[in-house]
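Hi V.,

You were right to ask for the full record rather than a summary. Here it is.
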Amino acid sequence: MPYRAPVNDFQFLLDHVVGFDAVAGTDKFAEATGDTVQAILTEAGKLSSEVIAPLQRNGDLHGALLENGVVRASPGFKEGYEAIAEGGWIGISGDAEYGGMGLPFTLTASVNDMIAGACLAIGLNPLLSQGQIEALESHASDEMKELYLPKLTSGEWCGTMNLTEPQAGSDVGALTTKAVPNEDGTFAITGQKIYISWGDHDMAENICHLVLARLPDAAPGTKGISLFMVPKYIPDEAGNPGKANDLRVVSLEHKMGLHGSPTCVMSYEGATGWIVGEEQGGMAAMFTMMNNARLNVGVQGVGVAEGAYQHALAYALDRKQGRTPLENGQGTIVDFADVRRMLVQMRAETYAARAIALACATAIDMASATGEKTWKSRAALLTPIAKSYGTDTGIKVADLGVQIHGGMGYVEETGAAQYFRDVRVTSIYEGTNGIQAMDLVARKMMDGGDAAFRLLDEIEGNAEAARGTLGKLAEAVWSAAETLREATEWLVEQDLQDRFAGAVPYQSAFARVLGAHYHLRSAVAEGGDGPRTALAAFYIERLLPDHAAALEEARAGAAGLYALSVEDLAV
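Predicted structure:
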């Protein structure tokens, strides 16, 4: 499917909207100069458009297969993966000591967005390795780092996450996989894990599984969980893949989408593992991997939204159906007001979601470079919003793409439905969007809302400064931020049950206001006249009002949800 990486959008957002200049101004990321950023974006765009995008349809039609105990990747995926690895794209933000570029995570997020827009199925693979690299950098022993990080960074080896079990999904503390100490300091890992993305394949020399398991007599719940490195092939003395470990792929899940990405049921049968970090410190180590992975999943949603939008736009520019109402128009369905409405909404939502994701990544980089608490709080606050809004946007935009295609959108040969099928899981994995919302209104509000209020101060200050050139739009953004402030003040005074009842609409409202904020900043940077300003006006005038209804729902409390008994629901 044709795909053109939106390099100009990334460049504009980094230069004018999300404050990336502060990241480049730190000592840690001083090498992220304008020329370097432009080169990274340009080359990643070429890779995505020319090498990865052609794999999109093939991965759907000819998915990964389990043959004689080995998973075979979709045709062409091995070559696509090698292009990603050889280009150094896996280790953009990795430690230079182990072969990484040491560049800001914001650039990694930008590249992942482009690859996901080209082909989400293959783009999921390097994301998992990147998360594992980060976890090992933070928690592994020096010996483990020296063995695994260079191979993971180069892409010679791949990484996975093994959390979920049949009885332990969102409740990770219910896992039962066992880790029994061996006499040589290793551990025997026994148990079954499900939903393991890219749990096996034939694209890399070795696959390195990070597995959560429980030591004998460990504390119950999440406090008793430890993290282990369990490779498919045990490295020999030279650090090369040696004998096969005692693990296997039981089956591949038959999924709604992402057919090119094998989702494995893994069985560990006394497999040899090495502990990562402290005993019973597994959740802390895994959360190092998961937090940025959550943002990267939001980025996946944004990337798919971009791909679905471009696919729908191409169809609308080509499809003729009836008399079009515009003189000197295209003569195709793009001239009809409702089709134009859907296309502009797709573009506006994608732009807002991308801006929120890059702002979150920027905060993560600033926290890493400065160690300042305010940046850490900003990154923590934005992560669940970026994950949820990014993935919700991917689903919404892909759905609109099907609608624009009309009946042909429901016919698989156009490829429109694939975007929807592929992206639908992103609001589920790496913590469902409902769990993200609960995290936002609970853990992220343990400061009494201080991080949220600081962000709202910035939004209102930006709106105030824009009143002179964009009065009506600026006023709308300021008013929305003030309404969100009042709702947040109410929220932090409520008990958790009432917070949870309104968590999802509150999170949606916060995303709407943030999206309007970044659209307004784009309009100001453009000078208040041009396509970005017109896009901002669409978002602020037509989509921002959603926040008011969402906040009304957020403040309704929990009582009404339980007014119907379980028996009433069953009638």
